[in-house]
Amino acid sequence: MNKTLIKLEGFIVLASALYFYFSQGYHWGMFLLLLLVPDVFMIGYAVNNKIGAYLYNFAHTYTTPLLILLAGNFMSVNSLIMISMIWIAHIGMDRMLGYGLKYPSGFKNTHIQKM
Fold it and tell me: How many folded domains does the chain comprise?
């Protein structure tokens, strides 16, 4: 049940981020270019599982992109708003597909499932 709820939540977040992204007139090209950028944080796994999990989780929690979204809105900086919406969409997409936050025990151990 919990896994289903997290996947449904991810779908709703992804759909909402897409709606708000495109309602602002931002373009597909930039969306597609930046959509997978948060996955670059997996590079930490080249060092060890603990650093990999820390960096991956930093890039895959809603806190950072939401803070950037707030800053972008407060300062009226469209590029920050655009980047944050893409980042939020990425996280929603990951959750929808069953990819969750990582435990230091290994990349395949997530808060949603053991892959």
Answer: 1
